[in-house]
Amino acid sequence: MQLKRFATRLRFTGPSECEKMDEELRCYACGGNFKTPVLLPCAHNVCLICAHDLQAKSNIQGQFIFEQQLDFLDFPDTDRLSAASDGDSGVSYAGYAPSAISSASSGSTSSCSSGRGSTSGSGGVLKGIGGNYPPLQTDSVRLTCPKCHRTIFLDDRGVESLPRNLALESIVARYAQIRNRMKCQLCEKDAKDAEVYCEQCDIFYCHACKESCHPSRGPLAQHTLTIPSKGKLATGSKAPPRISTCSEHKDENLSMYCIMCKVPVCYLCQNEGKHMNHEMNALGAMSKVQKGELSQSLTALTDRARTAKNFLIELKNTIDKVEESSIDFEASLVAKFDELISIIQRRKEQLIHQVQREKDFKTKMVRNHINQCSGKLKQTSTLLEFSIEIMKESDPASFLLVSNSLIDRARHTESSWEKEMILAPRVDHEFDLTLESGPAVKAIERLNFKEMKEFLQVHLVESSCEFQAPDPPIIIPSECSAENNSVTIAWQAHPSSWVEGYVLELDDGNNGAFREVYCGRETICTVDGLHFDTTYHARVKAYNHAGEGDYCDTICLQTAEVAWFQPDPRTAHQDILFLNDNLTITCQSLDDRVVLGNVGFSKGVHYWEVTIDRYDNHPDPAFGVARFDCTKDQMLGKDEKSWSMYIDSNRSWFIHNNAHSDRTEGGIGVGSVIGVLLDLDKQTLCFYVNDRRQGPVAFTGLKGVFFPSISLNRNVQLTVHPGLDIPAGDEE
Fold first, then answer.
1. 3-class state of residue 92 by DSSP
2. In whole angstroms, what separates CA 10 from the centre of its chain?
3. DSSP string covering 157-188
4. What CATH number is associated with residue 546?
5. Which of 412, 596, 624, 700, CA to CA, is 20 to 30 A from 539?
6. How would residue 82 be classed by pLDDT, with cut points 50, 70 and 90?
């Protein structure tokens, strides 16, 4: 009921409502209305033809961009969950800062303005410069999203593996009809434009045919006549509902919803395909739940928009009040100065000029505030209008394809409202100035306004003061630090500057070009996912409506020499159990389950050990490295994104992509120590058992980003010891 009331309250009725969400109906690549839109894993849409073009362009530039990313970043924390959900769909993507890709491709740097969104997390903590890391294959099929510049890796089918956004396609088609005028259905020749639509007759009439064939008398007087655009919507809604089919099994209808992968699936996918043994729910039930969640988010967002709209009205009224206050204040000044002699007359004119300047300043600040709030309100209204149209989608599968991204966007917009939408006037319409008229003639020459607000005093003390770009911020070295592979930078505004936001930039650790990593109002920022044992340079600049100020002096911060990590509960299989501050792990399943470390490595030499705490019934745990999106419900090394050594009580094997090699005698028991040496400078992976090399070099040619990984079942318990010195025999 709540969903129906919400949709009824905001229902579109004509072309004007369509124009409000015109931005959501246009392709980011070609700029025109969507034609056969497909949904990218980053939740943006492009035309199918544009996707083919983007795939062709990205495959040419892919190698260069891939190397640029790996040269600058280790793996961050942001977007890990989204990457995990994309892993089963055949499509994955790698994200990075827009300024980074723009500088890599065209040499340009991104600019900052008051309207740019903040990339910080809560409290100004930035969880990584980029998004997810790309897979190992640099020659795989890929494309780059034209909106967020994320690199999306596709399977062998290329863009054909991307799901069609049938809900969006339906909206575009429906509102394309509204823009075209309907013709009269009763005119015999040269049909005229229709003026009305009869809901009972289901016919469009021009003025002449209405008067002759549908007079407003008798039984026809009870018919409901409406405008042609509403008639188009009514006729469009009578079309039979679409039945969505599986993208892999073309003859199968979508019948269930995979909870783990967050995609609709067919019967074959559920029982024979890659979604087998995954938790499922009925499409209709899941669609109802998702629509309910989206309705709640949009209801809260609607209240925010209504409050902002009322506030904008108050701001516009403030301009009139400033004008009125200015007139009243000038009148009081004239009355006081009329009592003084000629020398006061000269001083009076100077003070009136200052009042005019204050009025101009207040007016300018209010207008700037109106522009800022209007932009945020327009963005929110566009999201509201588009989301309501998506909620009208009758096909649950089509709706569920986009519902998660819309819920995330609505929640993100609502959560960021307090930071980006300041619903309080920056200046008061009253003039907080007092005039002292009692001193003698000598004191009159020093007469001036006594400011009541410290903010306005900065701009009005000197008669030549103008609204200027802020001075460089001041770095606070005592609050800056480097820990593990992250750095924290703190700063403060220059005392004489009015600041609306800051831009933090970081170099690549090799004295290369600076890249923007944060933009917002916070004065402290933590950047994760950097290289170990690397010195980074950071600088900050401030901005306001007058423009961007100069950069402050750079500060140097060095990350830790030794890489420290721990098993990550957020990305591990749900059967993995964690103890001892997540350093000790076991499993509650008899099948092998995979857990990854919370830090990825892309260069350097790294060594860690794992102690066997419990070993029952001769299991064969596996140790090694993996990509972030490896399969986590089978032994490590059975897929193409993991490399490992599995070992039992007697012998061990190396395994990658389910290919076994180099059987080596010597097993493990309680108290045994497994060592893993990842040398990314030489691109090799070696293993140790009780301080002795186990077999030859296991794997070579390793390039990219790798996470420490373990697979185990309920018969074994392990403790991880990260950040150890390299074994003596391999120091060279």
1. strand
2. 26
3. TGGGGSPB-HHHHHHHHHHHHHHSPPBPSS-S
4. 2.60.40.10
5. 412
6. very low
Domain count across the chain: 5
- Residue 452 inside a domain? The answer is yes
Looking at every residue in the chain, the average pLDDT score rounds to: 77
- Amino acid in position 343: I
Element (H, E) at 397: helix 396-415
What single DSSP character describes residue 273? S
Contact assessment for residue 136 and residue 92, using Cβ atoms and an 8 Å cutoff: no
How far apart, in whole angstroms, are the C-alpha atoms of residue 161 and residue 435? 74
Is 703 a member of any domain? yes
How many CA atoms, within 13 angstroms, populate the side-chain half-sphere of residue 247?
Answer: 20
Let me know if residue 373 belongs to a domain: yes
How far from each other are the two terminal CA atoms of the chain, in whole angstroms? 71
> Counting every residue, how long is the chain?
732
Pair 149, 30 in one domain: yes
Residues 37 and 66 in one domain: yes
Q: Pairing state of beta strands 673-679 and 45-47? A: unpaired
CA–CA separation, 486 and 128 (whole Å):
9
The answer to whether the beta carbons of residues 319 and 366 sit under 8 Å apart is: yes
Q: Are 449 and 433 in contact (CB under 8 A)?
A: yes
Contact by Cβ (8 Å): 226, 197: yes
Question: Can you give the residue range of the structural domain that contains 36?
Answer: 2-112+129-166
Q: Which of the listed residues 558, 593, 622 is the one where a domain comes to its end?
A: 558
Confidence (pLDDT) at 177: 64
The tokens of 121 are what? 């997390």
pLDDT in tens, 598-636: 888 887 888 999 999 999 998 999 999 999 889 999 999
Angle (CA) 671-676-678 rounded to 5° is: 170
The three-point CA angle 199-204-205 to 5° equals 115
Same structural domain for residues 151 and 87? yes
Q: Tokens 């109802």 appear where?
A: 288
pLDDT grade, residue 444 (50/70/90)? low
Cα separation, 67 vs 55, in Å, equals 18
Of 50, 18, 23, the closest CA to residue 35 belongs to 50
- Give CA–CA dist 316/336, Å, rounded: 31
Q: Are residues 172 and 162 in the same domain?
A: no
Structure tokens at 698: 């296991």
SS3 of 266, please? strand
Nearest in space to 710 (alpha carbons), one of 603, 623, 618 = 623
Report the distance separating Cα 263 and Cα 254, nearest Å: 10
pLDDT of residue 8: 42
SS3 of residue 589 by DSSP: coil
Same domain, 143 and 15: yes
Residues 84 and 137 grouped into a single domain: yes
CA distance linking residue 299 with residue 304, whole number of Å: 9
- 270 is a domain residue: no
Angstrom distance (rounded) from CA 216 to CA 224: 10
pLDDT digits (tens, 9 = 90+) for 256-282: 888 888 888 888 888 887 788 888 888
Q: 161 and 309 share a domain?
A: no
Q: Please, where are the H alpha helices in 493-575? A: none
- Does this model's pTM top 0.70? no
In the block, tokens 């059967």 appear at: 575
Collapsing DSSP to helix, strand or coil, 493 comes out as coil
| 433 and 538 together in one domain | no
Contact 687, 645 (CB under 8 A): yes
CB atoms closer than 10 angstroms to residue 267: 15
Instruction: Point out the domain boundary residue: 435, 460, 485.
Output: 460
What are phi and psi for residue 101, nearest 5 degrees? -70, -35
| Greatest C-alpha distance within the chain | 110
- Helix (H) and strand (E) counts for the chain? 15, 34
CA angle 37, 382, 299 (to 5 degrees): 110
